[in-house]
């Protein structure tokens, strides 16, 4: 089937009109957007699944045995469940199947079983999500290969080019990213998923918006974000302009790192979208530094051995009895009379006090352990809050008798505001910025990563890893951390600030008490954060930070006197 006729060539100097007439088109067939639930797409997606199945049981690049290929953590079926306008039944299905646990168990021994609600993945191999059909076809049949030293987990290395159009015309195309054309407000430059930059083309703005509703949202939010950056960083106007209108040369520079930013923005946002989560973008308006390589996951990853430990601890949690609610305390749960969240907090508090073995009652009182309860809008109250305090949120489950809309289930319901991974400067590198306004006390994002032991095998020394990617649990499990250096989401980019705009809160969260309980880390806003402003946390408590001229000079503000400690730390026991 021939693509529709074009009226005007995008960049006459960049492609011949013959190429232009055959450029890939998003409008070639009755295609729906990539996250649509159309039966056509379901059929194609499962065909593509079969293709992947045949490539399983191989070895990955590190020589590690691959038990079965998981194209990304989330695409093996999850991408089929998110229609743009779900029916009630489909909505229920999304709610019921959201949580996924990933188990790393390279030996394949004693494989844990999955349930329909909590699929368990045995091996992570970041691949292009299955729902991205043309990107997968490009990877298999594309005519151009990107420099393979630049490989990013889950990002294509092969692409269709304008020269491939003859063989693949009529292939379904998804608009991956768009740029405005200053003199022609009705046009957009569209680059397509799975096609290289030379096959970018101009399209009618309204037609793109109609076909791909997310593009309209994308461009509106991008403009808003870039307008905010213009005010916040007036020295970077050239880079800001390029994000909006593109640079003349970029369409001919397929290898330019700029295109990796576009790939990561689309594909990670796609994985988010499949899980009911908002946009995540990657942006560098300052230089040509490359974004870091890491495996994107919207859930925590845990080894079977550690999951087994958590399952043993369930015995204690099962004994938790509902305590009488103190009068005058605020209760966010829809069903305060049956809510057991405060009782669960009491359970952990008591358990910690027993383990602390402090010499006298005065010392015990010195530890402030806070039960953070959301208000009826789901926000936390940070009045009188100290970032050095131990704190925890317990979320409702089916044991509380409330609905899924209960305000005490923020992390379960998932991130609501989009974020931008933004290049800050040479010292801090990438940080995280708000794509949408955030209110004080609001849940922002989960900090996902690998659950690791603080001191593996009783070594007494924290593993030789960059602990600035560790998020610790002070209440639920002092022996484990969430580490996001290799696997994680956009939260792994948050910079340290001595006066932060956000905070980690360890969270006890599961929808059903029959789900495994794995501690999670939520990020909440300590103050209002406007579009374009940075989301920062305080990495270390005050006594680990010092002005002692060693470690990493803190760049949270130009005159900050503090230094961040360096790694690895010796554990306390070995200090003397
Ligand atoms: C968890 S990572 C944050 C993401 C990282 N910036 C990146 O681009 O991948 C922590 C590292 O960021 C840098 N960093 C974060 N906050 C900083 C600050 N306030 N001052 C100096 N460096 C900072 C340090 O190199 C630190 O080791």
Draw up the topology in text.
Blueprint: H1 17-21, H2 39-53, H3 88-97, E1 101-104, E2 120-121, H4 133-141, E3 144-145, E4 158-159, H5 165-168, E5 175-180, E6 187-192, E7 201-204, H6 205-211, H7 213-232, H8 237-245, H9 257-274, E8 280-283, E9 295-296, E10 301-303, H10 304-318, H11 341-356, H12 361-366, E11 369-371, E12 390-394, H13 410-413, E13 419-425, E14 429-434, E15 443-446, E16 450-453, E17 470-472, E18 480-483, E19 487-488, E20 495-496, E21 502-508, E22 520-525, E23 534-537, E24 552-553, E25 563-564
Parallel strand pairs: 1-2, 1-10, 8-13, 9-19, 11-12, 12-21, 20-23
Antiparallel strand pairs: 3-4, 5-6, 6-7, 13-14, 14-23, 15-22, 16-18, 17-18, 21-22, 24-25
Helix pairs in contact: 6-7, 7-8
The structure holds S-adenosylmethionine.
What's the count of strands? 25
Which stretches are low in confidence, meaning pLDDT under 50 for 5 or more residues running? 1-83, 570-576
Are any ligands bound, and if so which?
S-adenosylmethionine
Question: Helicity, in percent?
Answer: 10-25%
The largest pleated sheet is described as: 5 strands, mixed
Strands of the largest sheet, in order across it? Answer: 8-13-14-23-20
Instruction: Could you tell me the CATH topology label of the domain at 300-325 and 334-411 and 438-527 and 537-545.
Output: Beta-clip-like
Strand content: 15-25%
Structural class: alpha/beta
Give the distance, in angstroms, between the N- and C-terminal Cα atoms.
76 Å
State Rg: 25 Å
On the 0 to 100 scale, the average pLDDT is: 78
